């Protein structure tokens, strides 16, 4: 079975919206786009390059697909450009967006069912969800996520789209790897660890 990994940049209060630039995603009046830039650097760039050295396919929601496809085909020479452009992109959308960033395929019908079918295929590489908050929440609700790679930046925004939004099903996670950059970014890799266990002191 193929491994499904949610990998995303987050603030300390869980915001994932528009980390890379002011105009990346202004929906909902979001005015803090580009919040990761100040804490980025060579150390994190090297970590991200190491991540992209392994084979993967992409699972994207329509909005994230449109953001990526408007940029990466025109910047193939940049770091991460070639692996992103070469990867097979699977797009979950209720509409029928133009899939000009090849190779791209529309996941028609129920997104969770389509992704579950992709996971059953043993012939493909890992499936990575970048951004795509609504899609990620759907996959989390259906127990389809095998690993989270969360890059947590040292700031809070108080508003914006969150990875673990209202309605997230409670679940325990197990930390399996971690690194901290010189700028205070915590890079944690987590696996699902069953139900939340409660107790009292």
Report on the structure:
This protein is an alpha/beta fold and 201 residues long. It has one domain (4-192): Dihydrofolate Reductase, subunit A. Helix content is 21%, strand content 24%. It has five helices and eight strands, in the order E-H-E-H-H-E-E-H-E-H-E-E-E. An eight-stranded mixed sheet has the order 4-3-2-5-1-6-8-7. The longest helix is centred in the first third of the chain and has 10 residues, at 42-51. The termini are far apart.
* DSSP strand content: 15-25%
User: How many beta-strand segments?
Assistant: 8
CATH topology: Dihydrofolate Reductase, subunit A
Average pLDDT score: 94
Low-confidence stretches: none
* Class from secondary-structure proportions: alpha/beta
The assembly state of the depicted protein chains is: single chain
Give the full name of the CATH homologous superfamily. Dihydrofolate Reductase, subunit A
Helical proportion, percent range = 10-25%
**CATH C-level:** Alpha Beta
- Structure annotation, total helices: 5
| Strand arrangement, major sheet | 4-3-2-5-1-6-8-7
- CATH architectural type: 3-Layer(aba) Sandwich
Question: Distance between the terminal alpha carbons, to the nearest Å?
Answer: 41 Å
SSE string, helix = H, strand = E? EHEHHEEHEHEEE
Cα-based radius of gyration, to the nearest Å:
17 Å
Based on CA inertia axes, which overall geometry fits? globular
Overall number of domains: 1
Describe the sheet with the most strands. Answer: 8 strands, mixed
């Amino acid at each position: 079975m193929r491994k499904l990994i949610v990998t995303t940049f987050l603030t300390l209060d869980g915001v994932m919206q528009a980390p890379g630039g002011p105009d990346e995603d202004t929906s909902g009046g979001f005015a803090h786009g580009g919040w990761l830039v100040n804490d980025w650097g060579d150390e994190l760039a090297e970590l991200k390059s190491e991540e992209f050295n392994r084979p993967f396919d992409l699972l994207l929601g329509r909005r994230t697909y449109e953001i990526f496809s408007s940029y990466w085909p025109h910047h193939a020479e940049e770091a991460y450009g070639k692996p992103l452009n070469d990867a097979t992109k699977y797009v979950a959308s209720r509409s029928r967006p133009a899939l000009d960033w090849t190779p791209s395929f529309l996941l028609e019908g129920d997104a969770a069912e389509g992704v579950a079918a992709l996971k059953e295929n043993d012939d493909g590489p890992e499936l990575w969800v970048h951004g795509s908050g609504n899609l990620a929440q759907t996959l989390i609700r259906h127990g389809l996520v095998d690993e989270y790679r969360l890059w947590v930046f040292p700031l809070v925004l108080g508003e914006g789209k969150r990875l673990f939004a209202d309605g997230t099903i409670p679940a325990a996670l197990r930390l399996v790897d971690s690194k901290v950059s010189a700028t205070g970014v915590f890079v944690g890799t987590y696996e699902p660890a069953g139900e939340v266990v409660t107790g009292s002191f």
